[in-house]
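## Example record

The block below lists the input lines for one assembly entry, exactly as stored, with component labels intact.
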Amino acid sequence: MAEILVCDDETNLRELLCLALEANGHRTLAAASGAEALRLLEQAPWELLITDLRLPDVSGLEVLRRAKELAPERPALLMTAFASAATAVTAMKEGAFDYLEKPFDMEELHLAVARALEQGALKRENVRLRQAAGERDAGEEIVGVSLGMRRVLELARRAARTDASVLITGESGTGKELVARFIHGCSGRAKGPFVAVNCAAVPEGLIESELFGHAKGAFTGAVAHRPGLFVEADHGTLFLDEIGETPLALQAKLLRVVQERLVRPVGGVGERSVDVRLLAATNRDLMEATAAGRFREDLLYRINVVNLRLPPLRERREDIPLLAARFVEKHARKYGLTIHGFSSEVMDCLLRHHYPGNVRELENLVEGAVALTVDGRVELEALPEGVRCGVRAVDRAATPFRLPEGGLDLEAHLAELEASAMDQALELCQGSKTRAAELLGMSFRTFRYRLGKLMGR
Ligand SMILES: Nc1ncnc2c1ncn2[C@@H]1O[C@H](COP(=O)(O)OP(=O)(O)OP(=O)(O)O)[C@@H](O)[C@H]1O
Ligand SMILES: [Mg+2]
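Predicted C-alpha coordinates for the full assembly:
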Protein backbone atom coordinates (compact mmCIF):
# COMPACT_ATOMS: atom_id res chain seq x y z
CA MET A 1 0.00 0.00 0.00
CA ALA A 2 1.45 3.31 -1.00
CA GLU A 3 1.09 7.06 -0.82
CA ILE A 4 0.06 8.15 -4.32
CA LEU A 5 0.09 11.70 -5.66
CA VAL A 6 -2.66 12.17 -8.26
CA CYS A 7 -2.58 15.26 -10.44
CA ASP A 8 -5.39 16.08 -12.87
CA ASP A 9 -7.28 19.31 -13.45
CA GLU A 10 -10.53 17.46 -14.22
CA THR A 11 -12.22 17.32 -10.85
CA ASN A 12 -14.40 14.29 -11.57
CA LEU A 13 -11.61 12.13 -12.86
CA ARG A 14 -9.26 13.18 -10.07
CA GLU A 15 -11.80 12.26 -7.43
CA LEU A 16 -12.67 9.01 -9.14
CA LEU A 17 -9.00 8.01 -9.29
CA CYS A 18 -8.46 8.84 -5.64
CA LEU A 19 -11.51 6.83 -4.62
CA ALA A 20 -10.49 3.84 -6.71
CA LEU A 21 -6.95 3.89 -5.35
CA GLU A 22 -8.14 4.27 -1.78
CA ALA A 23 -10.57 1.39 -2.28
CA ASN A 24 -7.48 -0.65 -3.10
CA GLY A 25 -5.87 0.33 0.19
CA HIS A 26 -3.63 3.18 -0.98
CA ARG A 27 -3.46 6.67 0.46
CA THR A 28 -3.82 9.53 -1.99
CA LEU A 29 -2.84 13.16 -2.29
CA ALA A 30 -4.70 15.17 -4.90
CA ALA A 31 -3.40 18.10 -6.92
CA ALA A 32 -5.71 20.07 -9.21
CA SER A 33 -2.93 21.84 -11.06
CA GLY A 34 0.68 21.42 -12.08
CA ALA A 35 1.77 24.07 -9.62
CA GLU A 36 0.06 22.30 -6.76
CA ALA A 37 1.64 19.00 -7.80
CA LEU A 38 5.09 20.61 -7.83
CA ARG A 39 4.51 21.91 -4.31
CA LEU A 40 3.28 18.54 -3.03
CA LEU A 41 6.16 16.69 -4.66
CA GLU A 42 8.54 18.64 -2.46
CA GLN A 43 6.54 18.82 0.71
CA ALA A 44 4.45 15.68 1.02
CA PRO A 45 5.45 12.05 1.36
CA TRP A 46 4.69 10.23 -1.92
CA GLU A 47 5.80 6.97 -3.46
CA LEU A 48 4.10 7.06 -6.83
CA LEU A 49 3.09 9.98 -9.05
CA ILE A 50 0.17 9.77 -11.44
CA THR A 51 -0.19 12.88 -13.54
CA ASP A 52 -2.16 14.02 -16.53
CA LEU A 53 -0.05 15.17 -19.46
CA ARG A 54 -2.14 18.24 -20.32
CA LEU A 55 -2.57 20.57 -17.42
CA PRO A 56 -3.66 24.20 -17.66
CA ASP A 57 -0.59 25.69 -16.01
CA VAL A 58 2.55 23.54 -15.91
CA SER A 59 2.82 20.58 -18.33
CA GLY A 60 2.62 17.04 -17.00
CA LEU A 61 6.09 16.42 -18.42
CA GLU A 62 7.40 19.27 -16.28
CA VAL A 63 5.86 17.65 -13.20
CA LEU A 64 7.37 14.33 -14.22
CA ARG A 65 10.82 15.87 -14.66
CA ARG A 66 10.70 17.49 -11.24
CA ALA A 67 9.58 14.21 -9.65
CA LYS A 68 12.51 12.42 -11.27
CA GLU A 69 14.92 15.10 -10.06
CA LEU A 70 13.65 14.81 -6.53
CA ALA A 71 13.39 11.04 -6.39
CA PRO A 72 14.71 9.16 -9.43
CA GLU A 73 13.88 5.77 -7.96
CA ARG A 74 10.20 6.53 -7.38
CA PRO A 75 7.91 5.52 -10.24
CA ALA A 76 5.57 7.79 -12.18
CA LEU A 77 2.64 7.15 -14.50
CA LEU A 78 1.45 9.56 -17.14
CA MET A 79 -2.16 9.81 -18.28
CA THR A 80 -3.04 11.20 -21.62
CA ALA A 81 -6.02 11.51 -23.90
CA PHE A 82 -3.71 12.09 -26.84
CA ALA A 83 -1.53 9.03 -26.66
CA SER A 84 0.63 9.16 -29.70
CA ALA A 85 3.63 6.91 -29.91
CA ALA A 86 5.82 10.02 -29.94
CA THR A 87 4.37 11.21 -26.62
CA ALA A 88 4.88 7.78 -25.18
CA VAL A 89 8.54 7.86 -26.16
CA THR A 90 9.00 11.32 -24.66
CA ALA A 91 7.26 10.23 -21.47
CA MET A 92 9.38 7.10 -21.18
CA LYS A 93 12.51 9.11 -21.88
CA GLU A 94 11.59 11.49 -19.11
CA GLY A 95 11.38 8.51 -16.83
CA ALA A 96 7.68 7.67 -16.76
CA PHE A 97 7.26 4.02 -16.01
CA ASP A 98 4.13 3.63 -18.08
CA TYR A 99 1.37 5.72 -19.59
CA LEU A 100 -2.37 5.30 -19.40
CA GLU A 101 -4.39 6.24 -22.40
CA LYS A 102 -7.68 7.95 -21.53
CA PRO A 103 -10.28 6.63 -21.24
CA PHE A 104 -8.98 3.68 -19.26
CA ASP A 105 -10.81 1.31 -16.97
CA MET A 106 -9.98 0.84 -13.31
CA GLU A 107 -8.51 -2.61 -13.99
CA GLU A 108 -5.93 -1.01 -16.23
CA LEU A 109 -5.22 1.61 -13.60
CA HIS A 110 -4.74 -0.95 -10.83
CA LEU A 111 -2.54 -3.09 -13.01
CA ALA A 112 -0.33 -0.16 -14.01
CA VAL A 113 -0.12 1.03 -10.39
CA ALA A 114 0.80 -2.44 -9.14
CA ARG A 115 3.53 -2.78 -11.75
CA ALA A 116 4.90 0.69 -11.12
CA LEU A 117 5.05 0.09 -7.37
CA GLU A 118 6.73 -3.24 -7.91
CA GLN A 119 9.28 -1.59 -10.18
CA GLY A 120 9.82 1.15 -7.59
CA ALA A 121 10.43 -1.48 -4.93
CA LEU A 122 12.92 -3.24 -7.18
CA LYS A 123 14.72 0.02 -7.86
CA ARG A 124 14.95 0.84 -4.18
CA GLU A 125 16.23 -2.64 -3.51
CA ASN A 126 18.78 -2.12 -6.27
CA VAL A 127 19.93 1.19 -4.87
CA ARG A 128 20.30 -0.45 -1.50
CA LEU A 129 22.26 -3.38 -2.89
CA ARG A 130 24.40 -1.10 -5.01
CA GLN A 131 25.21 1.09 -2.06
CA ALA A 132 26.00 -1.99 -0.03
CA ALA A 133 28.33 -3.33 -2.68
CA GLY A 134 29.63 0.06 -3.77
CA GLU A 135 28.89 -1.02 -7.31
CA ARG A 136 27.22 0.46 -10.32
CA ASP A 137 24.03 -1.37 -11.21
CA ALA A 138 24.73 -3.51 -14.23
CA GLY A 139 21.00 -3.51 -14.94
CA GLU A 140 20.96 0.12 -15.97
CA GLU A 141 22.12 -1.02 -19.38
CA ILE A 142 19.20 -3.36 -19.91
CA VAL A 143 15.90 -1.98 -21.07
CA GLY A 144 13.02 -4.11 -19.88
CA VAL A 145 9.64 -2.66 -18.89
CA SER A 146 7.63 -5.57 -20.28
CA LEU A 147 6.32 -8.19 -17.93
CA GLY A 148 8.39 -10.85 -19.71
CA MET A 149 11.67 -8.99 -19.34
CA ARG A 150 11.03 -7.88 -15.80
CA ARG A 151 10.42 -11.46 -14.89
CA VAL A 152 13.71 -12.52 -16.50
CA LEU A 153 15.63 -9.76 -14.75
CA GLU A 154 14.12 -10.60 -11.40
CA LEU A 155 15.06 -14.27 -11.80
CA ALA A 156 18.52 -13.23 -12.98
CA ARG A 157 18.96 -11.12 -9.86
CA ARG A 158 17.93 -13.99 -7.65
CA ALA A 159 20.22 -16.42 -9.43
CA ALA A 160 23.06 -13.89 -9.13
CA ARG A 161 23.03 -14.29 -5.35
CA THR A 162 24.18 -17.88 -5.76
CA ASP A 163 26.86 -19.69 -7.75
CA ALA A 164 24.30 -21.80 -9.62
CA SER A 165 25.00 -22.39 -13.30
CA VAL A 166 22.55 -20.57 -15.52
CA LEU A 167 21.57 -21.49 -19.06
CA ILE A 168 20.24 -18.50 -20.96
CA THR A 169 18.12 -19.43 -23.95
CA GLY A 170 16.39 -17.32 -26.55
CA GLU A 171 16.41 -16.42 -30.20
CA SER A 172 19.34 -14.63 -31.75
CA GLY A 173 19.60 -10.98 -30.73
CA THR A 174 17.33 -11.20 -27.67
CA GLY A 175 20.06 -10.03 -25.29
CA LYS A 176 21.50 -13.26 -23.92
CA GLU A 177 25.00 -11.92 -23.55
CA LEU A 178 23.72 -8.74 -21.96
CA VAL A 179 21.86 -10.79 -19.35
CA ALA A 180 24.97 -12.89 -18.71
CA ARG A 181 26.93 -9.72 -17.97
CA PHE A 182 24.08 -8.51 -15.81
CA ILE A 183 24.17 -11.67 -13.68
CA HIS A 184 27.91 -11.33 -13.25
CA GLY A 185 27.54 -7.64 -12.38
CA CYS A 186 24.91 -8.35 -9.72
CA SER A 187 26.81 -11.26 -8.23
CA GLY A 188 29.38 -11.43 -5.49
CA ARG A 189 31.94 -12.03 -8.23
CA ALA A 190 31.36 -8.62 -9.86
CA LYS A 191 34.87 -7.48 -8.97
CA GLY A 192 36.35 -10.62 -10.52
CA PRO A 193 36.78 -11.22 -14.25
CA PHE A 194 33.95 -11.86 -16.72
CA VAL A 195 35.35 -14.02 -19.49
CA ALA A 196 33.22 -14.77 -22.54
CA VAL A 197 33.97 -17.40 -25.15
CA ASN A 198 31.95 -18.10 -28.24
CA CYS A 199 32.12 -21.87 -28.62
CA ALA A 200 30.96 -21.65 -32.23
CA ALA A 201 33.66 -19.20 -33.26
CA VAL A 202 36.73 -21.11 -32.05
CA PRO A 203 37.98 -23.78 -34.48
CA GLU A 204 37.31 -27.28 -33.18
CA GLY A 205 40.98 -28.16 -32.92
CA LEU A 206 41.76 -25.15 -30.75
CA ILE A 207 38.84 -24.95 -28.37
CA GLU A 208 40.24 -27.36 -25.82
CA SER A 209 43.48 -25.44 -25.40
CA GLU A 210 41.55 -22.18 -25.49
CA LEU A 211 39.45 -23.30 -22.53
CA PHE A 212 41.85 -25.40 -20.52
CA GLY A 213 45.18 -23.93 -21.64
CA HIS A 214 48.24 -25.75 -22.92
CA ALA A 215 51.78 -26.46 -21.92
CA LYS A 216 54.65 -25.03 -23.93
CA GLY A 217 55.35 -27.35 -26.87
CA ALA A 218 52.10 -29.28 -26.43
CA PHE A 219 51.49 -29.00 -30.18
CA THR A 220 52.96 -27.17 -33.16
CA GLY A 221 52.48 -23.49 -32.54
CA ALA A 222 52.25 -23.83 -28.76
CA VAL A 223 55.32 -21.69 -28.27
CA ALA A 224 54.50 -20.70 -24.74
CA HIS A 225 52.50 -21.93 -21.80
CA ARG A 226 48.94 -20.63 -21.89
CA PRO A 227 46.67 -20.76 -18.87
CA GLY A 228 43.33 -20.97 -20.72
CA LEU A 229 40.02 -19.25 -20.13
CA PHE A 230 38.93 -21.29 -17.10
CA VAL A 231 42.02 -20.08 -15.28
CA GLU A 232 41.57 -16.54 -16.57
CA ALA A 233 38.05 -16.58 -15.14
CA ASP A 234 39.25 -17.73 -11.71
CA HIS A 235 37.21 -15.99 -8.98
CA GLY A 236 34.91 -14.64 -11.66
CA THR A 237 32.45 -15.84 -14.27
CA LEU A 238 33.00 -17.84 -17.44
CA PHE A 239 30.35 -17.34 -20.11
CA LEU A 240 30.14 -20.18 -22.64
CA ASP A 241 28.22 -18.63 -25.52
CA GLU A 242 26.61 -20.86 -28.16
CA ILE A 243 27.25 -23.89 -26.01
CA GLY A 244 25.01 -25.93 -28.30
CA GLU A 245 27.78 -25.86 -30.90
CA THR A 246 30.44 -27.63 -28.84
CA PRO A 247 31.58 -30.97 -30.28
CA LEU A 248 30.75 -34.09 -28.28
CA ALA A 249 34.39 -34.86 -27.48
CA LEU A 250 34.77 -31.51 -25.81
CA GLN A 251 31.47 -31.88 -23.97
CA ALA A 252 32.91 -34.87 -22.10
CA LYS A 253 35.91 -32.81 -21.01
CA LEU A 254 33.74 -29.87 -20.07
CA LEU A 255 31.59 -32.11 -17.92
CA ARG A 256 34.61 -33.19 -15.90
CA VAL A 257 35.74 -29.63 -15.30
CA VAL A 258 32.23 -28.52 -14.44
CA GLN A 259 31.85 -31.34 -11.92
CA GLU A 260 35.25 -31.14 -10.32
CA ARG A 261 36.37 -27.60 -11.03
CA LEU A 262 39.82 -28.96 -11.92
CA VAL A 263 41.51 -28.12 -15.21
CA ARG A 264 44.35 -29.93 -16.90
CA PRO A 265 46.11 -28.00 -19.67
CA VAL A 266 46.60 -29.74 -23.00
CA GLY A 267 49.92 -31.58 -22.96
CA GLY A 268 50.52 -30.56 -19.37
CA VAL A 269 50.95 -32.58 -16.25
CA GLY A 270 48.99 -31.94 -13.11
CA GLU A 271 45.69 -30.23 -12.57
CA ARG A 272 44.76 -26.91 -11.16
CA SER A 273 41.61 -26.08 -9.28
CA VAL A 274 39.56 -23.11 -10.37
CA ASP A 275 36.79 -21.16 -8.68
CA VAL A 276 34.55 -20.25 -11.60
CA ARG A 277 30.86 -19.53 -11.96
CA LEU A 278 29.48 -20.86 -15.22
CA LEU A 279 26.94 -19.16 -17.43
CA ALA A 280 25.99 -20.54 -20.83
CA ALA A 281 23.80 -19.42 -23.69
CA THR A 282 22.26 -20.98 -26.74
CA ASN A 283 19.61 -20.26 -29.33
CA ARG A 284 19.20 -23.99 -29.96
CA ASP A 285 16.77 -26.36 -28.36
CA LEU A 286 19.18 -28.38 -26.23
CA MET A 287 16.50 -30.84 -25.15
CA GLU A 288 16.04 -31.74 -28.76
CA ALA A 289 19.80 -31.89 -29.32
CA THR A 290 20.03 -34.21 -26.32
CA ALA A 291 17.31 -36.47 -27.68
CA ALA A 292 19.14 -36.55 -31.00
CA GLY A 293 22.40 -37.50 -29.28
CA ARG A 294 24.16 -34.26 -30.22
CA PHE A 295 24.37 -32.94 -26.71
CA ARG A 296 25.22 -34.82 -23.52
CA GLU A 297 22.31 -35.02 -21.15
CA ASP A 298 24.53 -35.04 -18.06
CA LEU A 299 26.24 -31.84 -19.19
CA LEU A 300 22.87 -30.24 -19.90
CA TYR A 301 21.73 -30.90 -16.33
CA ARG A 302 24.95 -29.46 -14.96
CA ILE A 303 24.73 -26.18 -16.88
CA ASN A 304 20.96 -25.84 -16.73
CA VAL A 305 20.52 -25.55 -12.99
CA VAL A 306 18.63 -22.32 -13.62
CA ASN A 307 17.08 -21.66 -17.01
CA LEU A 308 16.36 -18.14 -18.19
CA ARG A 309 14.39 -17.86 -21.39
CA LEU A 310 14.53 -14.48 -23.07
CA PRO A 311 11.28 -13.75 -24.87
CA PRO A 312 11.55 -12.66 -28.50
CA LEU A 313 10.97 -8.95 -29.03
CA ARG A 314 7.63 -9.53 -30.79
CA GLU A 315 6.32 -10.98 -27.53
CA ARG A 316 7.24 -7.87 -25.55
CA ARG A 317 6.41 -4.92 -27.72
CA GLU A 318 6.08 -2.67 -24.68
CA ASP A 319 9.88 -2.56 -24.66
CA ILE A 320 10.11 -1.15 -28.18
CA PRO A 321 9.59 2.60 -27.48
CA LEU A 322 12.18 2.67 -24.75
CA LEU A 323 14.69 0.54 -26.64
CA ALA A 324 14.21 2.72 -29.72
CA ALA A 325 14.74 5.87 -27.64
CA ARG A 326 17.89 4.38 -26.15
CA PHE A 327 19.29 3.46 -29.56
CA VAL A 328 18.44 6.85 -31.07
CA GLU A 329 20.37 8.52 -28.31
CA LYS A 330 23.31 6.17 -28.70
CA HIS A 331 23.64 6.47 -32.46
CA ALA A 332 22.82 10.18 -32.64
CA ARG A 333 25.70 10.71 -30.25
CA LYS A 334 27.93 8.47 -32.31
CA TYR A 335 27.16 10.38 -35.52
CA GLY A 336 27.15 13.80 -33.84
CA LEU A 337 23.52 14.43 -34.85
CA THR A 338 20.70 16.03 -32.94
CA ILE A 339 17.56 13.94 -33.20
CA HIS A 340 14.26 15.21 -31.82
CA GLY A 341 12.47 11.92 -32.23
CA PHE A 342 10.44 9.75 -34.54
CA SER A 343 7.39 10.75 -36.48
CA SER A 344 4.42 8.83 -35.15
CA GLU A 345 4.23 6.80 -38.39
CA VAL A 346 7.77 5.60 -37.83
CA MET A 347 7.00 4.58 -34.27
CA ASP A 348 3.86 2.77 -35.46
CA CYS A 349 5.95 0.77 -37.92
CA LEU A 350 8.54 -0.01 -35.29
CA LEU A 351 5.81 -1.19 -32.94
CA ARG A 352 4.31 -3.48 -35.56
CA HIS A 353 7.35 -5.05 -37.12
CA HIS A 354 7.94 -8.75 -36.51
CA TYR A 355 11.68 -8.63 -35.65
CA PRO A 356 13.08 -12.01 -36.58
CA GLY A 357 16.45 -10.54 -35.48
CA ASN A 358 15.01 -9.23 -32.21
CA VAL A 359 16.67 -6.35 -30.33
CA ARG A 360 19.73 -6.43 -32.53
CA GLU A 361 17.49 -5.91 -35.57
CA LEU A 362 15.71 -3.00 -33.89
CA GLU A 363 19.05 -1.40 -33.10
CA ASN A 364 20.21 -1.79 -36.70
CA LEU A 365 16.96 -0.31 -37.99
CA VAL A 366 17.24 2.66 -35.68
CA GLU A 367 20.89 3.20 -36.51
CA GLY A 368 20.11 3.19 -40.24
CA ALA A 369 17.18 5.52 -39.73
CA VAL A 370 19.23 7.94 -37.63
CA ALA A 371 21.85 8.11 -40.35
CA LEU A 372 19.16 9.15 -42.86
CA THR A 373 17.43 11.87 -40.83
CA VAL A 374 16.66 15.29 -42.17
CA ASP A 375 16.17 18.21 -39.75
CA GLY A 376 16.46 15.99 -36.71
CA ARG A 377 13.31 13.97 -37.28
CA VAL A 378 13.22 10.35 -38.29
CA GLU A 379 10.70 10.04 -41.10
CA LEU A 380 9.12 7.04 -42.78
CA GLU A 381 11.46 7.06 -45.81
CA ALA A 382 14.32 6.27 -43.45
CA LEU A 383 12.96 2.79 -42.79
CA PRO A 384 13.59 -0.10 -45.15
CA GLU A 385 10.59 -0.87 -47.32
CA GLY A 386 9.82 -4.19 -45.66
CA VAL A 387 9.45 -2.52 -42.31
CA ARG A 388 7.07 0.25 -43.34
CA CYS A 389 3.50 -0.16 -42.22
CA GLY A 390 1.01 -2.27 -44.00
CA VAL A 391 3.46 -5.11 -44.39
CA ARG A 392 2.18 -8.02 -42.40
CA ALA A 393 4.53 -10.55 -40.95
CA VAL A 394 4.90 -13.24 -43.56
CA ASP A 395 4.99 -16.17 -41.18
CA ARG A 396 1.56 -15.38 -39.86
CA ALA A 397 -0.24 -15.31 -43.20
CA ALA A 398 -3.62 -16.86 -42.54
CA THR A 399 -3.96 -20.33 -43.99
CA PRO A 400 -7.33 -22.07 -43.87
CA PHE A 401 -7.21 -24.99 -41.50
CA ARG A 402 -6.61 -28.41 -43.03
CA LEU A 403 -6.33 -31.46 -40.81
CA PRO A 404 -3.00 -33.15 -41.60
CA GLU A 405 -3.31 -36.76 -42.68
CA GLY A 406 -1.40 -37.95 -39.66
CA GLY A 407 -3.73 -36.01 -37.32
CA LEU A 408 -2.51 -33.40 -34.86
CA ASP A 409 -2.32 -32.45 -31.19
CA LEU A 410 -5.45 -30.30 -31.06
CA GLU A 411 -4.74 -28.81 -27.62
CA ALA A 412 -1.33 -27.61 -28.72
CA HIS A 413 -2.72 -26.37 -32.02
CA LEU A 414 -5.45 -24.38 -30.29
CA ALA A 415 -2.98 -22.94 -27.81
CA GLU A 416 -0.83 -21.79 -30.68
CA LEU A 417 -3.81 -20.29 -32.45
CA GLU A 418 -4.82 -18.48 -29.29
CA ALA A 419 -1.32 -17.08 -28.81
CA SER A 420 -1.20 -15.92 -32.38
CA ALA A 421 -4.67 -14.31 -32.22
CA MET A 422 -3.83 -12.43 -29.03
CA ASP A 423 -0.49 -11.37 -30.39
CA GLN A 424 -2.03 -10.06 -33.58
CA ALA A 425 -4.86 -8.32 -31.73
CA LEU A 426 -2.35 -6.56 -29.50
CA GLU A 427 -0.38 -5.55 -32.52
CA LEU A 428 -3.42 -4.16 -34.30
CA CYS A 429 -4.42 -2.22 -31.20
CA GLN A 430 -0.89 -1.00 -30.62
CA GLY A 431 -0.57 -2.69 -27.31
CA SER A 432 -3.90 -1.59 -25.79
CA LYS A 433 -5.16 -4.65 -23.95
CA THR A 434 -8.63 -3.18 -23.52
CA ARG A 435 -9.13 -2.81 -27.25
CA ALA A 436 -7.42 -6.10 -28.08
CA ALA A 437 -9.80 -7.88 -25.69
CA GLU A 438 -12.76 -6.22 -27.42
CA LEU A 439 -11.48 -7.30 -30.79
CA LEU A 440 -11.44 -10.91 -29.62
CA GLY A 441 -14.79 -10.68 -27.87
CA MET A 442 -13.29 -11.25 -24.43
CA SER A 443 -13.53 -9.34 -21.20
CA PHE A 444 -10.41 -7.41 -20.26
CA ARG A 445 -10.03 -9.67 -17.27
CA THR A 446 -10.08 -12.89 -19.33
CA PHE A 447 -7.70 -11.42 -21.85
CA ARG A 448 -5.24 -10.39 -19.19
CA TYR A 449 -5.47 -13.77 -17.49
CA ARG A 450 -4.80 -15.69 -20.70
CA LEU A 451 -2.00 -13.35 -21.70
CA GLY A 452 -0.38 -13.90 -18.33
CA LYS A 453 -0.65 -17.65 -18.83
CA LEU A 454 0.90 -17.43 -22.27
CA MET A 455 3.76 -15.27 -21.07
CA GLY A 456 4.44 -17.65 -18.25
CA ARG A 457 4.75 -20.63 -20.58
N1 LIG B 1 17.02 -5.34 -23.18
C1 LIG B 1 18.00 -4.71 -23.86
N2 LIG B 1 18.30 -3.43 -23.57
C2 LIG B 1 19.25 -2.79 -24.26
N3 LIG B 1 19.97 -3.34 -25.25
C3 LIG B 1 19.72 -4.61 -25.58
C4 LIG B 1 18.72 -5.37 -24.89
N4 LIG B 1 18.70 -6.61 -25.41
C5 LIG B 1 19.63 -6.64 -26.38
N5 LIG B 1 20.25 -5.44 -26.50
C6 LIG B 1 21.30 -5.11 -27.47
O1 LIG B 1 21.06 -5.88 -28.63
C7 LIG B 1 22.25 -6.46 -29.13
C8 LIG B 1 22.15 -7.97 -29.11
O2 LIG B 1 22.20 -8.45 -27.76
P1 LIG B 1 23.06 -9.74 -27.35
O3 LIG B 1 24.35 -9.78 -28.10
O4 LIG B 1 23.12 -9.79 -25.88
O5 LIG B 1 22.08 -10.87 -27.95
P2 LIG B 1 22.24 -12.43 -28.00
O6 LIG B 1 20.96 -12.99 -27.51
O7 LIG B 1 23.49 -12.82 -27.30
O8 LIG B 1 22.34 -12.69 -29.55
P3 LIG B 1 23.04 -13.93 -30.35
O9 LIG B 1 22.21 -15.15 -30.09
O10 LIG B 1 22.93 -13.49 -31.77
O11 LIG B 1 24.41 -14.03 -29.84
C9 LIG B 1 23.36 -5.92 -28.27
O12 LIG B 1 23.91 -4.79 -28.89
C10 LIG B 1 22.68 -5.54 -26.99
O13 LIG B 1 23.35 -4.50 -26.34
MG1 LIG C 1 25.22 -13.67 -28.08
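The chain has four domains: 3-126, 141-309, 314-394, 398-455. Confidence is low (pLDDT under 50) at residues 134-139, 391-399.
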